[in-house]
Specification:
Elements lengths: L5 E3 L18 E6 L1 H4 L4 E5 L7 E3 L20 E8 L5 E2 L13 E5 L15 E2 L2 H8 L4 E4 L13 H8 L3 E4 L9 E6 L10 E3 L3 E3 L1
Parallel strand pairs: 5-7, 6-8, 7-9, 9-10
Antiparallel strand pairs: 1-13, 2-3, 4-10, 4-12, 5-11, 11-13
Helix pairs in contact: 2-3
Length: 207
Amino acid sequence: MNHKTIIDISMELNSYTPEWPGDTPFDYELSVTIEQSGSVNIGKLQTSTHIGTHIDAPFHYNDQGLKTHELPLDVYLTQAQVMDVSGLEKIEILNLKPLEKNVEAVLLKTVSWQDRNKFPEKWPVFDESIAKWMTDNGIRLLGVDVPSVDPETSKELPMHQAMNQYQRFILEGIVLDDVSEGVYQLVALPLKIKDGEGSPVRAILYK
């Protein structure tokens, strides 16, 4: 059996994982211990669906959009290309690298979220023209290493809405600091949450 080298690009969920300002913080505790039950430990968790590494279902920003349980799973189980776009305040099409063959997801490495125990004050702006570029090139999923494809204070959500217009999908909060540019297999499957608008994921890359 061939053992794959797996790169975990997920944020750890713990009491220090920052939630969106005003959102539900992550909390995990043992609600039943082996001592209490005589056989097993049982945990209880409370969290926002948009904490740490997560996907946005289109329903998150469009009342008519697909909900989490309706998402096409092959979008999150695919070949992805990591592109280094670090050092930029705005990321546009001209900053993207030439696409490799058979790539259906692009993961943008901005390295702008240095302390994952704190919600960042700002991060790069993603130009909404990237959504059409994705469509023209057969890219279905965009992954970013920041909390959102739009600025924290945005109400219009231009990038989310552009992605919705072109039926592209969003993965946020991935960790690419130590990942080299190149093509990988991506797994970032959402939980099957009925009528959900998003889901935390365990995102990994492998070759």
